[in-house]
Amino acid sequence: MVTLPCTYSISYGTTTMCWGRGQCPSSKCNNQIIWTDGKTVTWRKSDKYQLMGDIEKGNVTLTITGVTSEDAGSYCCRVEIPGIFNDQKSEINVKIKEESCSLHLYTSSPVNVSWTTTSEGGYYLVQYTVIALLIVLFLLFGILLYRNQYHEKKVNDSSNTVSAISLGTLEAAQAVENVYVKMQ
Asked: How far apart (Å, rounded) are the C-alpha atoms in residues 122 and 144?
């Protein structure tokens, strides 16, 4: 017997899922071996494939009974999350070594399988990060533009003041010059 772990959060409710042989494709499962509607198994290729966990709590761990060397290879657990590219995918590779009429699972993990998990949800993390960075850049651009306009207005106001002071000094100088002219 081999157990291939796969669970998902049911915070938004249960959903359909499938197990298939081979790598996870961009949708559904290749070489399907078992399907569930989120409550019960709706289809299975053979009785050797079982979902013994609590399906309604998101435990869709696959148990393979009567394991033979033909069961070696990649398995895909795909949980269909609503939305584009939201599906949760787990790929698990099962290696079996035959020795003198007995089967052994080759593994480095405690659950007797080596497995990796990939998730298309990571795509949205990247997408949201890019959107957040663009918003920050637009905000910084807006702040810089505002500061530049504020600085120009301040310079223009101070140059108008300098011009007024210069004009007043010029008028005063002319008045003093006029006084000297009249006294001579």
From this structure: 33
CA-wise closest residue to 18 among 2, 31, 7, 34: 34
- Report the 10 Å Cβ neighbour count for 57: 12
Per the DSSP assignment, residues forming a β-bridge with 114 are 93
What are the CA-CA distances from residue 176 to residues 11, 29, 96, 168 (Å)? 88, 99, 110, 12
Global pTM value? 0.55
By C-alpha distance, which of 75, 73, 20 is closest to 43? 20
CA-to-CA dists, residue 30 to 42, 75, 129, 180, angstroms: 17, 9, 32, 106
Bin 120: left if φ > 0, else alpha if -120 < ψ < 50, else beta.
alpha
Please list the rounded mean pLDDT of every run of 10 residues in the chain (184 residues). 94 94 91 95 96 96 94 95 89 81 42 41 53 74 79 64 52 55 54
Handedness of CA 14, 51, 17, 59 (dihedral sign): positive
